[in-house]
Structures are given as structure tokens and as C-alpha cells.
Fold this protein.
Amino acid sequence: AQKITQTQPGMFVQEKEAVTLDCTYDTSDPSYGLFWYKQPSSGEMIFLIYQGSYDQQNATEGRYSLNFQKARKSANLVISASQLGDSAMYFCAMRESADQLIWGAGTKLIIKP
Amino acid sequence: EAQVTQNPRYLITVTGKKLTVTCSQNMNHEYMSWYRQDPGLGLRQIYYSMNVEVTDKGDVPEGYKVSRKEKRNFPLILESPSPNQTSLYFCASSFGGLADNTGELFFGEGSRLTVL
């Protein structure tokens, strides 16, 4: 069974609009962490945001926020006021055991001018 | 500059010819890991290391070896590469294990390997 599911293989969004990238996860571990990474066409992996399972508030980092709905096991990434430079692959990942990250297949986001 | 450095960045080789992809970090990180990235599959962990002389298998260790003789270096060895090991490989490191903090992984730039 998939542990991390990103249901949107690709998305087109108009510049300056907000974007929501979906991520659902499956775990029975009460302690876990959720991550989002960005991979531009140049290939590097850029850390965006982290949410711990016990965190009371949704994580935010600048234009990025994580909409954490624990009961639904979803951890959607929200990008406000999208920019052309946001065009990239976006990966959701979950830390379940102490030392492994499990990755989703990714969503390719294209921002249209 | 704090970084994770991988070499080579690009490599084309033939089946059976041993190769090593080097990885070095200058942040005094204890945790290091290797991933491979294939289209539609995200990243899959090959091996990881919690500290010097400590290595463990990830999800897809078959066909790979690693060593951690020094804290800063974590080479990935393909003893007898096969075409199904054609992939994009990432080395990553973090201060402690992923449970010690936010677990942010710092990634190298990637090594694109083609095995003919």
C-alpha cells in the first residue's frame, strides 16, 4: 500500500494565484513528520517546510504553508501568490521510523504567466 | 559554504564495470543517506549511515555497497552495474537522525548515471 500519495501528477496555475498541492499519508505510528521538497528543473532538492505530528499549529514558511489535517491524514502544501519561479516538481515525504523518509511520486507544477 | 558534494555529476558506463560515486559534506553531519530517483517513483532510499562505521540498508540496497570510514564521506559503490541501475542518485545529510530535529536533509546536486 502506498504510504505517501500525491494524486496530482501535474498542475497548471496562473501566476499570482494560490496553489494547493495534495498529499495524503498512511501510518499507524503516532509520532511522525511530514516534509515538502521542491525540485526545480536544474535537479537540486530544496527543503520547503516541515510539520510534526504533535505540532498544534500548521507550519508556515514565507509563502509556503502546510494544511495539516491529522484525522484525514493529509498534509497539503499551499503556495500563496505563485511566481514563475515556483514551477518545479514538488515532493511530499514522511518520516515514519527514526531514520527513513518515505517519498511520494511528486507533482509537477507549472506556473503560467 | 555549507554543502554536500557528489561526483561525478554525469556518468555513462557499461554493464559490469565497477564504479564509485563519491559524496562529501562539510557540515559535520552525523547522518548521511543515498537515494535514487526514478520517474513516477519519487526517491527511494538505498543505504543510510547514522555515524562513522555504522551503515544500514534502505528500501532498495540490492546491487549497491557503501562505506563510512570518515564522518564527511559516504561513497556509493556499484560493484557490477546493470542497466536497471540507470537513475538519478542523490546523497543527503543531516545533523542527527531524522528524529532528532526537523530532520531536514541537505542534498547534493545529484549524479545522473547511465548503464549501457
